[in-house]
Design brief:
Blueprint lengths: L1 H13 L6 H11 L7 H8 L4 E11 L11 E12 L2 H4 L2 H10 L7 H5 L8 E3 L5 E4 L6 E16 L2 E3 L1 H5 L4 H8 L5 E3 L4 E3 L2 E6 L3 E6 L2 E4 L1
Antiparallel strand pairs: 1-2, 1-10, 2-5, 3-4, 4-5, 5-6, 5-9, 7-8, 10-11
């Protein structure tokens, strides 16, 4: 099942449309309404499905260095992702994806790959697997998504800017991370590399979800 999803993910990633400036600016306007997609809406969208592909559109504020906190820089992201709904069918979905990806890298130790398990995190999964909540602050809700492909646009005071421009306003470590061109992930605990990208996106940042021929929008 997972293999089928990964093959389809590649096909869908190839057809992902470019995120335009107009779409990015519209996303910022939508988020400014302070409306948030609800858990009930997401549960209805994902009911009776194990894993589905979705197109997300969301807005985040870029974390800036202390001396630049007065600046307004936002990142608008369009992402093609996989969302798991039923916990029973997708326990260890992430771990299996990581092991499959890690097995492709010759530098990884085979025993370390086989031993990989997902570590405990700051969030816990709810009955709808891809909807997670902060372990200490249950009112904070996120969408747990495995990425197939994503693209972003940065806006500084609503004007499109480059990553290099944004980096000037970040801390040195954040700037380095922003500008790096590495698509792999290094898991320090197991000392393996893989290419599985997972994000937990605050529901309050999401302005649109397109899945199962339906569109949810704030």
């Amino acid at each position: 099942m997972l293999l089928l999803q990964q093959r389809s993910a590649t096909q869908k990633a190839r057809t992902m449309q470019k995120l335009t400036v107009a779409q990015a600016q519209q996303a910022i306007l939508l988020q400014a309404n302070n409306n948030t997609l609800t858990v009930a809406q997401l549960q209805q969208l994902l009911q009776n499905v194990s894993v589905t592909f979705a197109q997300l559109l969301y807005v985040t504020n870029v974390q800036l260095a202390a001396q630049h906190k007065a600046q307004n820089i936002q990142k608008v992201t369009s992402a093609n992702v996989q969302l798991a709904s039923t916990l029973h069918a997708h326990t260890q979905l992430y771990a299996r994806a990581v092991r499959k990806s890690a097995a492709k890298y010759a530098q990884n130790d085979a025993a370390a790959v086989a031993a990989f398990t997902a570590q405990q995190n700051y969030f816990v999964h709810t009955a709808t697997h891809c909807i997670v909540q902060h372990a200490q602050h249950a009112h904070k809700l996120y969408l747990f998504a495995i990425y197939n492909n994503a693209q972003s646009v940065y806006l500084h005071n609503n004007a499109v800017v480059s990553k290099q421009h944004v980096a000037q306003y970040c801390t040195a470590s954040a700037a380095q991370k922003l500008l790096q061109q590495n698509d792999t992930v290094h898991n320090v605990t197991h000392n393996i590399v893989h290419s599985v990208q997972v994000r937990t996106i605050a529901l309050s940042n999401i302005v649109q979800i397109r899945a199962r021929k339906q569109l949810l929008s704030v």
